[in-house]
Amino acid sequence: MKTETVNKRKFNYGPILIILAACFWGSMGIFVRKLTAYGFTSIQIVAIRVTLAALIFSLILFIKDRKGFKISPKDIPLFLGLGLGSILFFTVCYFAAITMMPLSTAAILLYTSPFWIMLMSVLFFREKLNAVKIIALIMAFGGCVLVSGISGEGITFVGLLLGLGSGIGYGLYSILGTIALKRYSPYTVTTYTFIIAAVGSWFICRPKDMFTKFASVPNLAWLIFFCFLTALITAVIPFLFYTLGLHMVEASKAGILATVEPMVATIIGIVFFSEQLTIFSGLGILLILVAVIILNLKKKDSKYGKN
Q: Domain for residue 84, yes or no?
């Protein structure tokens, strides 16, 4: 009887995968600051990151399941949406927003993504809204605002649109990813998503200038290694974890769980860059943690069973 009970109540590690993905994303500041010091622009860092991630994902898929490279021509628009409409679009919008307004404002607009995910999930997947999700969403977003801080200065209309665009593009990965996962493995989904994003990035990254910067570096071997490490830590591992987690977690719930990213980024800033922990950022971290906890108190879900 005990064995049957254990089998019926399999532990759902989907939320853990989502949170781990957000933790890896939260470390991005370390790598971006280092590559910026080498003279690369934000868009060039994006191109390096997604291109090397595409190579690593392709290698993983080749080793794990070569048949996974086969996709239906009718699903090409879906992968174009994932690669260009989500990954590349949200990254370009986010970095452009950073140049037009305070970083804190751009970060907050990026983390409107759970709202867009929840809205699109209701429209496309007919997910049911409940008090737990709504309360967790409000607390998580409030926590992001407190962690990021907001001055309200320097906000422009174009910057506002770009910031909201980054949030929509970021959220779109959860929606399109959920659809793609019904037809393909997480390895196929991530591989084609990043291949398409990589191709698109080369049209906007000024390749000639980027290669000139690589050629002028005295320790080229170390830089190449660091670029691969950047792709592995900030793209391959987190996106693979997140995509695997989407197998077991509703898109709306995954979006809220991923808001631990700014919390992790804040902690890393304190530990590695001697940044100060303010009362507001501390309260924001607490709100995000509470949101994650109450979101996982709900044991049963009509669609996913044990979320």
A: yes
